[in-house]
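Case study 2.
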Amino acid sequence: MDIIKIFVPKKDHSIILKHQLSWYFIPLLLIIWFLFPESHFIFSISMICIVVIGIIETIFFTPLTIITKIYSVLSHLLLLVPIFYN
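Prediction:
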């Protein structure tokens, strides 16, 4: 979690690291996606759900700074790259 604190402004640390599971799910799903290629169909559905829910929550319901919102939206969109790549 120290890497997140480098990029995210200090006033957003308590908001972004509390109750935000995407910071764990996004890297975990990307690792699983590349390690187990036979399970792409199963994980593609959950990746799309995380992207949609995460972007909606970030933009409308989380009181963050603009920089943190941009980071969050870009990291959620990062999950779509492997889906369109395959």
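The chain has six helices and no strands.
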